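Problem 12. The chain below contains 263 residues. Write out its predicted structure in token notation.
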Amino acid sequence: FITRPLINSKGLNTSAINGFTRMLWDLLRTEKPTHIAVAFDPHGPTFRHEQYPKYKANREEQPEDIGVAIPWIQKILKGFHIPILCVPGFEADDVIGTLSKQAEKAGYDVYMVTPDKDFGQLVSERIKIYKPAYGGNDAEVLGPAEVCARWNIQDVSQVIDMLGMMGDAVDNIPGIPGVGEKTAAKFLQEYGSLENTLANADSIKGAMGEKVRKGKELAVLSKKLATIITSVPVEFHEEDFKLKDWNKEELKNIFSDLEFRTL
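Solution.
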């Protein structure tokens, strides 16, 4: 939508609202979930900014059109009677991680709807990543086998070791300067974890060994920043998250205001 935004007759850029609503509608229609909730990032810094003030510092300011879209998206979610979750000090990722683990414990099959590869660390036999359809590609479901193949690792727990070593440019997580994805995977095949790699830094030859020895502190910090917290003060309420009848009148009014005629 960036090159061809959807602008309604009132001059409102409805691209993000439309994209979100259509994705949600497709999900409800094709996957037929029994329970659903949507997590949002809070305003202001999170505990990761306290650990590392440069966290996400390279990100551009949130576009104005997204800021305008969020209240509309939340109105639409309320019309669908879908719970909205936001916990001060924690990112939406941590809220999703915590609820996923709680729902798994309660016996549910869980799908984390996100294109974010970092969620691979949470995947299990009962928790999967549901990567929405995008740019002509179909939706993808990623379980442990797919996550391990994607990163060339043995176990999903090693996703955070990978990110600790190679960093994450999107979130401005530094990693070990000079260590990329292939080298990180090679270290994990040899040593099993970030900590074990650092403990064996003296036996890594040449310039790469020097980089690992120099980057120890950054690596430990990076792994911490990349770890999705699963102990956020939030609870999986089965009844609250159960899909309910929608407020069709309310949705009709919202879609009419936005000029979403097809919806």
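Discussion. The first helix runs from residue 15 to 31. Students who got a different answer should revisit the alignment rule from Section 12.3.
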